[in-house]
Amino acid sequence: MTTRDFEIARSVLVGDTADIYLHRTLTILRNEGINPDVAVEFTSDRDGVIAGVAEVRSLLSRVLPETGREVWALEEGSHMARDEVCLRIRAPYAAFGLYETAVTGALSASSGWATGAQECVEAANGVPVMSFGAKYVHPSVAGILDYSACAGGCQACSTVLGGRLTGLTPFGTMPHSMILLIGDTARAVTAFDRHIPPEVPRVALVDTFRDEGEESLAVASHMRERLRGVRLDTPRERGGVTPELVHEVRARLDQGGFRHVDIYVSGGLDPERIKAFNKAEAPVSVFAVGRYIAASPPIGFTVDIKEIDGRPVAKRGRIPGIRENLRLERVL
Amino acid sequence: MTTRDFEIARSVLVGDTADIYLHRTLTILRNEGINPDVAVEFTSDRDGVIAGVAEVRSLLSRVLPETGREVWALEEGSHMARDEVCLRIRAPYAAFGLYETAVTGALSASSGWATGAQECVEAANGVPVMSFGAKYVHPSVAGILDYSACAGGCQACSTVLGGRLTGLTPFGTMPHSMILLIGDTARAVTAFDRHIPPEVPRVALVDTFRDEGEESLAVASHMRERLRGVRLDTPRERGGVTPELVHEVRARLDQGGFRHVDIYVSGGLDPERIKAFNKAEAPVSVFAVGRYIAASPPIGFTVDIKEIDGRPVAKRGRIPGIRENLRLERVL
Amino acid sequence: MTTRDFEIARSVLVGDTADIYLHRTLTILRNEGINPDVAVEFTSDRDGVIAGVAEVRSLLSRVLPETGREVWALEEGSHMARDEVCLRIRAPYAAFGLYETAVTGALSASSGWATGAQECVEAANGVPVMSFGAKYVHPSVAGILDYSACAGGCQACSTVLGGRLTGLTPFGTMPHSMILLIGDTARAVTAFDRHIPPEVPRVALVDTFRDEGEESLAVASHMRERLRGVRLDTPRERGGVTPELVHEVRARLDQGGFRHVDIYVSGGLDPERIKAFNKAEAPVSVFAVGRYIAASPPIGFTVDIKEIDGRPVAKRGRIPGIRENLRLERVL
Amino acid sequence: MTTRDFEIARSVLVGDTADIYLHRTLTILRNEGINPDVAVEFTSDRDGVIAGVAEVRSLLSRVLPETGREVWALEEGSHMARDEVCLRIRAPYAAFGLYETAVTGALSASSGWATGAQECVEAANGVPVMSFGAKYVHPSVAGILDYSACAGGCQACSTVLGGRLTGLTPFGTMPHSMILLIGDTARAVTAFDRHIPPEVPRVALVDTFRDEGEESLAVASHMRERLRGVRLDTPRERGGVTPELVHEVRARLDQGGFRHVDIYVSGGLDPERIKAFNKAEAPVSVFAVGRYIAASPPIGFTVDIKEIDGRPVAKRGRIPGIRENLRLERVL
Amino acid sequence: MTTRDFEIARSVLVGDTADIYLHRTLTILRNEGINPDVAVEFTSDRDGVIAGVAEVRSLLSRVLPETGREVWALEEGSHMARDEVCLRIRAPYAAFGLYETAVTGALSASSGWATGAQECVEAANGVPVMSFGAKYVHPSVAGILDYSACAGGCQACSTVLGGRLTGLTPFGTMPHSMILLIGDTARAVTAFDRHIPPEVPRVALVDTFRDEGEESLAVASHMRERLRGVRLDTPRERGGVTPELVHEVRARLDQGGFRHVDIYVSGGLDPERIKAFNKAEAPVSVFAVGRYIAASPPIGFTVDIKEIDGRPVAKRGRIPGIRENLRLERVL
Amino acid sequence: MTTRDFEIARSVLVGDTADIYLHRTLTILRNEGINPDVAVEFTSDRDGVIAGVAEVRSLLSRVLPETGREVWALEEGSHMARDEVCLRIRAPYAAFGLYETAVTGALSASSGWATGAQECVEAANGVPVMSFGAKYVHPSVAGILDYSACAGGCQACSTVLGGRLTGLTPFGTMPHSMILLIGDTARAVTAFDRHIPPEVPRVALVDTFRDEGEESLAVASHMRERLRGVRLDTPRERGGVTPELVHEVRARLDQGGFRHVDIYVSGGLDPERIKAFNKAEAPVSVFAVGRYIAASPPIGFTVDIKEIDGRPVAKRGRIPGIRENLRLERVL
Lengths: 332, 332, 332, 332, 332, 332
Hints:
- Chain A is of the alpha/beta class.
- Chain A has two domains: 10-112 and 297-330, nicotinate phosphoribosyltransferase (Alpha-Beta Barrel), CATH 3.20.140.10; 118-294, TIM Barrel (Alpha-Beta Barrel).
- Helices cover 38% and strands 17% of the residues of chain A.
- Chain A has twelve helices and 14 strands.
- Chain A has helices at 10-13, 20-32, 53-63, 100-124, 142-151, 160-166, 176-182, 185-195, 212-223, 243-255, 271-279, 291-294; strands spanning 37-44, 48-49, 70-73, 79-80, 85-92, 129-131, 156-157, 203-205, 229-232, 262-266, 286-289, 301-308, 311-312, 329-330.
- In chain A, the strands form three sheets. Chain A has a six-stranded antiparallel β-sheet. In chain A, strands 7-6-11-10-9-8 form a six-stranded parallel β-sheet.
- The first copy, chain A, is elongated, with a radius of gyration of 24 Å.
- The two termini of chain A are 14 Å apart.
- Chains E and F meet through α2, α4, α5, α6 and α7 of E and α2, α5, α6, α7 and α8 of F.
């Protein structure tokens, strides 16, 4: 995953997204004739899953001179410990000083999302988790969010772009809007079945108009073997989805002869709530998680020049010289 | 601020960042010949400051038909209450169904950042707050982060793009890297002074090599009236910046005759810590806040079709029909 | 209320429900020829509402000699403070020693229930509260529970016997059983309407088969002006009744033209939850409370001989002699 | 214990203690000609000890038709888990619908008391526990309380009726009143000894007038081998009974040559305090518990029709059809 | 109080109790010929009551040269705020460098005790508090403890030396030992009355053998008008002294005609418990406090050289130069 | 350690530091002719380390008659359990009654300090702990504090007298004062090296003027092999000493070739903070603890006469007669 190539936005390449002081630093150093070879280390400030490595690699491959550069990083999607060196760049300073903001930001945001996703995946204990978080992030990063969530262990995601970046088929059921516009859940599902290619699984949203148990049976009776699953997304005004509801819908489906119909759960899920479903042995087939992953806080990365022309240095508060980390792999 | 025009990325316009199920919904409705006029409302799920309205307006102005559309929204940067209707769109459903993910995501992320910024601004109680959060977000949204932080009350931001979007001069001091590369703080500040246009304020970072008090006096002795301020950014390994440190540096500067030198504080600030500085009457001139604003969780927005061809509707759990809100202004 | 006459069970009158040591004490004192006039005080050990006074008065009127007796008590249903003297009996000891267990027990249990009821009534802040607690107490005291709950402020109760003791018409809607047996909510309500006298209000239980909003509209459409209310009793497996559900059902009923239909709420209510409904301004017409009132802990009463033949006494730990309390009224 | 026969009050048999809506339901069903065979299940809503089964069996044996009825229940005094089916009745609905309140109430109250008793018994870890709770419940249920406490593991109880229901000799020491009336503890104990049959153990209450240690020695010196024990019941105004007091009284009795005298402890005991005595290895012979058992909250039972004429049914929120439970035994 | 003269131990004057590094510092400075005039400030690190000033003054008056010295201090027993300058010494450094440990230690310990005493005095809200703490401190400082407690507001103390230092008559009742040796409380009090001068108040300890209420009446009956008070000191094994016990003993004394007998309370008192007595309006005449005062933690004092030969200095972390404090008074 | 001889102050021997009631008791008993042989036991009221035994032994050896006395005690510095008998004296009461306050006080204070020291020693888990608490106690007990801290496991102490009492060389580095007076850390250390005997270790305080890392390297460069260690004592205004600071200083010293230089840590240490250093594997060579040890609360000792002329006695609340404890050793 680490060497996949990413498109880099022009505004990033020209430095528009950089902190202004980096522009000024480059001006000053150029005027002073200072441009040593440096080794810079990026250190994580909490435990988590690293993501963003491939994108950073793509950016650096476009801006670093081909000779004399060295980039070492942890593998995309692997675990990183607090205070671990996760990325090391060796190159003339002037070649990449401007990109410090972009590199740190990409790692920070992507690793935050991947870490949030992984917490859900762990809680789900084998039940697949899907990333439905696009509606909680700016559209410019919706694809990156989905990519990072999959780096953290999600098995699918909901955006078209996320699908393209991960190489996985994007996943979706149907929105409440469609059912409201058609005016009846069973009719909406039938329309879906009529117009959407057969390889897309038929998963009905069953809480729009009526009780979930009632609606599930109604839809299953219309669709029979063609129905792949039902999605429970009860709003908080109605108590949200509970483990007991999953048990009951499962029992009613089974008693109706619809053992093949899966149950998808969504709506405000987080690791605690996912664990509660598992503890109650609720027969959930898929958890769809949105806000928790999207709201995972960024992971901070400390950036330190550790060598200047081969000499160990550090600012006060840090230990001079590079710190060995055998888990780093050379990516450039 | 609400009517400023934003560039909208192509991937957003073509729907690549949309949830896949919206694509399918449009296919189905088209095949079924369903395309009523609808009223859709976006409701916030917690208190905060709204941002992203101008960008959403720019997007909708490109996709909605000029006749028959109506867009109402709260004013950019104003307060919004939990469960308040913040945005209402009236148009034929097919014209904008695909953009639900993008609109919600832009509001969600931007409002989250604006709200985090405002909490800091309130805590600072009159002392200016600056947004330094770009290193914690993906570079594709660094400018939007800075724009949103200023909507929430920040007086300046650090990225070039943020400056462009807000119309404010971007602000920065100098990175530790530059001082390490030059090898001495006083020499680094002198170099800055030599090469950077005079209208940029000279603010020295004073914790790279030596004790902050010692370094502040050394820099002030070199620069005298030309020095605008010193920035304290003590790392957590050294206990971070404390109110007592600000008092001491202020006293030492005053005793040295440098009453004109301001003190900028940065490093892991959040509303609690800002209040602690104020409570201890620490003479801070500017607070620079990064991670807290960038990590502010997105604010969720519920999207509900409330009218179809003039008829009140709602899914189970919501009240049918639009909800009046006199604070909404027509933006399109 | 305090002088209403109660039937006293034979087992109480013969002392079968008394602690055995009271029987033995009477035997010993008789053999020793000891039977002084005593003053005995009953002191409450926490704040609350007193109940059981009328029943205790009925018991004492049957066992105390008509001359030489004096019974003073607080008024039924009034507030009593911790450590307040609530009942004082003056009589020859042998006339009532055996009934100490019964008198204390009646006050203890009844006051506990009245106090629990009053906490709900206070929380309800003007909205009527009804006692539905019979299913949580032994049938031998179901009527006393209801009587005590009304002494604490409830406006009605559910048992036939409770109705008789309080002089109020017992109140009820319909059980889930009836709806299940008839097989459809609207049909069940119609049957009720057909066979039950018109002065009994028609209140439909609307969560048996379908979503509460849907069912409420269905029932209201059948019954129109004849429907007095709907009762929401959503089980905890479906999240229980929430303020939002009440708001929504209210809105849907109003939009359907059924403004005259009241909303009754039941299911696990306690003062905290009742306050939450009021805080959310949920338009509830009646709260029906069961378990909280029935499970209210008994209030302990300390029983102390304070005078023997006019001489102040007390055991160690208590202050000798009677304690004046101007709130006491002579009831016998 | 489960098949012992109980007397059932007339008011229960005629339905006076039933919720009014059950009367109405029977009227309606009769008029509609509905009276199917049903299976009804009673499910506990928390862990505990079941009691009340024998009494419920006695009630049902009087009202159900002898043919076509089936009653299954857990064994009296056994453990029941949350959500376990504890009682199942199969019969024509009209035969027992009216008794739902009584059956649930009897189980609820009795199981609550048995569960509270069992918590004390467990805490006592082998030291006998006695039920002294009659003064905290209405006299109509004082015997049932004692019966239930013994079902939960108490080794004796204090009321005459409780003794009759359990077949155990009721237990008691002497009340403070008797000592106050006689005027001296040693004289009171001597009087007890003179007038009460020798098989009743002589247990002196030793905190009425003087220090417990002093009084214990005084009583033991008078009574010698005839003294079975002393009861410590120090009021809270004097700090209550502490483990250290028990140790000291034990030591003083032993030093005086009264090793045969047991120590009974009472006064505000609960499982926490009982454990504290055990942890401090206080040589207690018997714990007498009143309020804690009497105030144990009722255990709720959910009542659901699960089959109608052999067809599985359930209201929304419950799983249709009966749930097997191999621990149920047929009692009727 | 601040100018009272104290005896200073020889070991302190020769520096035996000083930290060894102060000895070495004086050696080095002498060899280097360094002995400037300095201003040294002592700053408290928490709020409290200052004590020890008079003793420090006595020490400094013996070691500082009479000309060229200046000592300023807060008034003994006055309030001091956290971070307030409490003592300032101006003198040649060599004259007092050795005594830094002794000066700081005397202020630290004495102020800690005075502060603890004052917390009790405040809690007692007008009822006198006496210092009984000598048994919790080393005998070498028992007198200083009592002196400091009186500086903090105590109205008397228990040691002979404390009495001498404060000029107050030491106060005491009688120990349990004396009563045990004489074998009876009333006889012990009579013996006290026979042999101790009449101006010493007769206060009987009443919990040695019997119940406090019983013993109080027995002693009062023997002593009548000659009894000044009774002291309640119930051990924790008997629940300690409670507000209810004070009320009861008061009532029993009053009922016996002994209104003139005061009630002294001791045994594990602290501000919280003293407040509980006041809140319950317990009629206590005197609180005797031991451990709480003796265990009051020392108050730390920071010692900083702030001027050297008139030039402001400070170590890193402190503000250079003296800090004005108008509350300081010149004491030498 | 238990039999080391201590000097006893005259004020203690004449009883000036005793509670006045002991003087009166002796007067009364003498006049009454009461002076039995008694056994008195001292019982600790919490777990801890006992200290003060040797000093108490010295006092008793001066006041008890040589024949007929017996003193048993736990070993100095050993563990004592709550409620354990720690000291037993057998002698005629008149010989030592006056010294109850002094004996209890010496044990109380010394054991408190030893216990506090031992908590630090345990937390340090093998790293030496030194007692620097003299500045927080009255100078009259500074030596006893240091002696007790060493009884609790400290390996050295700071006062001259403490050194004499323990037989250990007192330990110290240098005060901030000396560095301020000399004006430069490196020059101060050089002066120390010039004038102080070579067997005293050279340990430099490195936070007076400059950053600790910078200063450590500067001092080490001047002193080279002659430098034994650096002491970190960063004030709280600068965040105090952190584990990260120790790591960094260690790394910088090692990179500079100064692996032989130890790191001493001081400043507000307590067991929690010491554990945090160990958990972070900070390479600390010595912990110097002041306030925590000095502020350790005294341990209370209950004093009870348990035999009078061979007869077991006790006041109410205690068990009569001595309690065997095989850990006691005869010390006199």
